[in-house]
Write a structure and sequence with these properties.
This protein has 199 residues and is of the alpha+beta class. β1 (92-94) and β2 (97-101) form a beta hairpin. The strands form 2 sheets. It has a 6-stranded antiparallel β-sheet, with no helix packed on it. Strands 6-5-8 form a 3-stranded antiparallel β-sheet, with no helix packed on it. The protein has helices spanning 3-6, 10-24, 29-36, 40-47, 55-65, 69-72, and strands at 92-94, 97-101, 111-118, 132-139, 141-146, 149-154, 158-162, 167-171, 176-183. The chain contains 6 helices and 9 strands, in the order ααααααβββββββββ. α3 (29-36) packs across α4.
């Protein structure tokens, strides 16, 4: 029986998949915690469905498994190319707001993109994870804090920063939509052409 057959609820399905992937790879919670920087207790709560994983947590777990974000949450399988039809992208609910993965080349890619809906009823969350992050405001007005600096972004604005810095995003006054592009610290492959000859 597959995860999809066991759970009709998408959030329960994600929780079950997180646990199944870890067990398939023979990893303890402590080992996965060391690889992701997420505490073993928090990982356990996510696997049990007691805590919804943030976008940053999902990025870290996906990279630890060598999967794309979409593969991690069970939305897709890796292919030579990946097309996302905007209205048809599976939407998951997380502590940061409803989100959809917009990329899907799997472990061959160092880049992940997520469309995130920021609503005014969510608590402001500060996160940190490895890599770089680029945020583009599709619609609305967004507050952003990186390190000790706070800025306001409006429709069409973008911000690029080191994701290892403590950062937070929130909607100002009304719901907002952002596109978050995250790049792993070390690209999994050369961006174009063959790998350089190091001999």
């Amino acid at each position: 029986m597959t995860i999809d057959e066991r759970h009709d609820d998408p959030e329960k399905r994600v929780a079950a998949r997180l646990g199944e992937l870890r067990r398939e790879r023979g990893l303890t919670l402590n080992v996965l915690a060391a690889r992701t920087g997420i505490s073993a207790a928090h990982l356990s709560r996510m696997e049990k469905g007691e805590r919804q994983p943030s976008i940053g947590s999902l990025f870290q777990i996906a990279r630890a498994y060598g999967l794309s974000l979409g593969e991690l949450v069970g939305d897709e399988k890796a292919a030579e190319h990946h097309v996302v039809r905007g209205a048809g992208a599976p939407v998951h609910d997380g502590p940061d707001g409803p989100y959809a993965t917009m990329t899907g080349l799997g472990p061959r890619s160092a880049l992940e993109a997520v469309r995130l809906e920021l609503t005014t009823d969510r608590p402001r969350r500060t996160v940190t994870h490895a890599g770089e992050e680029w945020v583009y405001v599709v619609h609305g007005e967004v507050g952003a804090r990186v390190g000790g600096e706070e800025v306001t972004l409006t429709t069409g604005d973008a911000m690029h920063f080191d994701a290892a810095a403590r950062h937070a995003l929130w909607a100002r006054g009304a719901p907002a939509t952002v596109l978050i592009v995250s790049v792993a610290p070390t690209p999994a492959r050369p961006p174009h052409g063959p790998a350089p000859n190091r001999s």
